[in-house]
């Protein structure tokens, strides 16, 4: 099996004032709603649908029980962007202890990319990371929000994070197996 170099960038914000919000899409067609009831089926759908064409594979083998356990942890939240009632993308937050929140996953389904939803969703999700402890009183106040992205993600991912006020704190290059993408299924819309 062949290998490919993959660059991973880790970024952070250390104050809510670091956030540089993107403009919201015009009109009221896009809404962002918290999925308050943990649903392994829905979360797996979002994960596979957003990451299928960019090689998100680490959770594909998770059992229903593992998804349920993860989603039921205090400080794990899923915020979903809907365009006219259809799921367009999501941001998943995970409190990792001591006032730190990771934006564990973020992205759009392929048909919704390039429509000015991503910057808005990232801005909204980052703001929800900063106020996460307000919804989970047993958690410490948030003092750091971080994430990582890699060269397998979309071509505009890193730039979107930088434009939202995240700063780079680590870069790594590692060889990874060159695996085929797990999806989308043949004939699915891939954008332009």
From TrEMBL:
Keywords: Transferase. It comes from the Bacteria. This is GNAT family N-acetyltransferase. Residues 30-182 form the N-acetyltransferase domain. SUPFAM superfamilies: Acyl-CoA N-acyltransferases (Nat) (SSF55729). It comes from Streptomyces bauhiniae. GO terms for molecular function: acyltransferase activity, transferring groups other than amino-acyl groups. InterPro entries: Acyl_CoA_acyltransferase, GNAT_dom. Pfam families: Acetyltransf_1.
């Amino acid at each position: 099996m062949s290998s490919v170099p993959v660059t991973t960038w880790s970024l952070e914000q250390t104050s809510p004032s670091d956030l540089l919000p993107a403009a919201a899409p015009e009109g009221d067609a896009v809404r962002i709603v918290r999925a308050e009831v943990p649903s392994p089926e829905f979360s797996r759908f979002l994960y596979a649908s957003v990451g299928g064409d960019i090689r998100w594979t680490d959770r594909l083998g998770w059992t229903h029980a593992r998804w349920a356990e993860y989603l039921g942890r205090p400080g794990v939240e899923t915020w979903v962007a809907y365009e006219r009632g259809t799921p367009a993308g999501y941001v998943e937050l995970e409190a990792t202890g001591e006032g730190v929140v990771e934006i564990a996953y973020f992205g759009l389904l392929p048909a919704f990319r390039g429509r000015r939803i991503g910057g808005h969703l990232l801005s909204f999700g980052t703001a929800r990371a900063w106020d996460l402890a307000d919804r989970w009183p047993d958690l410490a106040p948030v003092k750091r929000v971080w994430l990582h992205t890699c060269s397998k993600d979309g071509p505009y991912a890193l730039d979107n994070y930088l434009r939202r006020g995240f700063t780079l704190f680590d870069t790594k290059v590692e060889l990874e197996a060159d695996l085929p993408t797990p999806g989308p299924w043949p004939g699915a819309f891939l954008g332009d």
